[in-house]
Each structure stands twice: as structure tokens, then as C-alpha cells.
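Record minuted for everyone:
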Amino acid sequence: METLRERKKQRTREALLRTALELFTTQGYERTTVDDIAEAVDVSQRTFFRYFAGKEEAALALMEMTVAHFLQTVRERPPHEAPVEALRQAVLEGWDTLNDVVEAIAPVELYLRMCRVIESTPALLAAHLRRSVEVEEAMAAILAEREGVDMDTDPRPRLAVAVFSGVMRLAERQWSAGEDFSLDAMRALTVSYLEQVGPALSESWRTH
């Protein structure tokens, strides 16, 4: 059972994270300091560093939670689904259950605004893309285990993940550059691009 001390620590971490996201999205990541975040929560800088290694970790923390949820969802997809279909259904389920994942920390609208900050901040985008490489390896390992293949000798898990990740990255960029920043818009864009993968790879694009 969780102790009172553990609950207090969890509440402090969540308050620091929520405050960090609010400051990053209102005054900018670069202009926000650790002292700003700590002061807003009425704790010391030292307390902040008990929970986060730095601003970057706080900025990416909520996205890390959603990625972990996505990977777990892939693991739990029915075994009869083809690998790419399992990825597709997992990401759609992830968008549909986003409230359940992030609402304990922050409103979904704040999470989406933070996604745009990550896209527009070079240091955060670079960190996000570095982390994506690790996520892709984890995803490929899950697919390999599901299908009973060795991904060191069978390229298909990594190939499937490379295509899927490329589509997701494109959807992120297009959504961030658009005018509709809603969750519905991001989900619709994701669905649209995933549905075009097969035709784009296997059919001619010529209209004449």
C-alpha cells in the first residue's frame, strides 16, 4: 500500500511537472528556468532536481508516459493481428485513451500545446528524435516477440517499424504546422496517413 510519504512525493512531482508544462507553453522553454518552476510550486531548486534531471526531462516527461502506454498497448494487441495492423490499432487506441493517461497530470489541451513546443524548440526536438530511436528498437523487439522471429536475422520487424515511425513523424510535423491543433485533428491526420501507406508503396502515382 502506498504510504502518506509516497503520496506526498507523487503530488509534488505532479505539481512540478504540470507547472513546468504551463510555463514552457506560456513563456517559452528557453525563457523558463528551473528556479521559475520551483518558485511557482513553492519548493527549492534542490527539490526540483530530486524529481527531474533538468528542464529537458520535465519537458518530455508527459510524452514519455504516452509512449510507454503505446508500447504496452502494442504488447496487448490480439496475436492474430498482422504486425502493422497491431501498430495501427495501438496508436489509434492511444489517441482514444489519451485522457486516461495524461489527465492525472495535466489537461490534454496542455499536453497538445507542449507537443507543439517540442516541435518548435530545436533542443527539445533533437532530444525527442534521439529518444525515438530507442522507442523504435523497443517496438521492433515487441513485434519480433509477437511473431516469433529473431530481429537480428529477420529485418521485417525493423522495416515495419521504420515505415510506421516515418508515417507518425510526418503526421506530427503536419499537425504542428497546421491550424487545427485539436486531438481530433491529430487522430484524423494519423488515420489518413496510415491508410495511404499501402497505396503509396505499391501503386503508381501517375494520373495519366
Q: What stands out?
A: The chain has a mean pLDDT of 91. The first helix runs from residue 4 to 27. Residues 107 and 150 are 40 Å apart (CA to CA). The chain has ten helices and no strands.
